[in-house]
Request: fold
Amino acid sequence: MNRKSSRPAVLVLLLLALAIPAALAQGTAEGPPATIRFATLNASLNRNSEGQLISDLSTPANAQAQTVAEIIQRTRPEVLLINEFDYDAGGVAAESFQDNYLSVSQNGADPIEYPYFFQAPSNTGIPSGRDFNNNGVVGGPDDAFGFGFFPGQFGMIVYSQFPIDYDNARTFQYFLWKDMPGAMLPIDPSTGESWYDEGDLDIFRLFSKSHWGVPIEIGRKTAHFLVSHPTPPVFDGPEDRNGTRNFDEIRFWADYVLPSRSGYIYDDDGVSGGLQADALFVIDGDSIPGSIQQLLEHPLVNTRVTPDSEGAVQQAALQGGANDTHLSDPAFDTADFADNAPGNLRTDYVLPRKNLHISDGAVFWPLNTDPYFPLVGKFPFPSSDHRLIWVDVFVPGS
Reply:
């Protein structure tokens, strides 16, 4: 089967940090732990022009949005990160997606309500005034602080059925790459010099979109939902400027959750430091070698449960191509990319903290004989080339 992917493998990173003492991880005399479903979906609800997503969601008739909403209704996460959802300052698209799609039954699925959502600006499409790609011309999406044709393109949003502590939410949109100790700044192989000059580095933001710490109040506990969508480690040259940026965007979270390594970090309000040590992580992504390993091999990360699906195994076999050369288990794939290269990949990770228990997890990728298969389908996809991934975790004392 010959087809094109809308883009190559993109690292989407979701971390969940839950402030729960280790002694509580298996429940307390106050009652059994509550199970909360956390999920992430790169929904491809990005559009080609500013305001187009608002227009598409202004009525309940957009076929792609209907399909995305049904996937969410069928999986029913309590807390959800959606990537590639264009940002608008008024939250109009966010409210319209809830009112016109999530709150409306899709093909008999029960509506789902999220009373709370969080959005913040994205670096995508914001002009930098610098020639970041060194092509001799200043301007365009590749010279923006994050690749994009207009501000907020490829943004993200968090929906929650639990209250969000907006006053204590943290964003890291303006964190400068050069302020990370030992940053993997790209080198121009033709000169051996830094790809970015001093003027570039004085303003170059590490995050192609942003990183957020969103506190979610689950009963008497606060879950710090750490979410991000790092740049794809492609679309560059031998200098690997996107690959190195991808690496350090992931490294930021690996440092953020360890007090011994997070002293250099500051947020957009000037508050320094990261999280306390007792944190749970839920991670999804694909990256250059060694990048995601910063979290897969993190001392606080639990890798014993890997969400999977039967549909991914079936599609890898049916599609062939690059999939036939992969060494990893196709059951763990979470994205359906071009068959010739790179093939289907695991681009979404679920990695909780070691002292918290995951009761279940899966990738929403049905078999082609399943009545829900048309929600994911084959290229051109009715929803997205990514699949929703979810985990159920125990939240004791909530």
Confidence is low (pLDDT under 50) at residues 1-11, 18-32, 283-289. The chain has one domain: 13-395. Residues 167 and 287 are 33 Å apart (CA to CA).
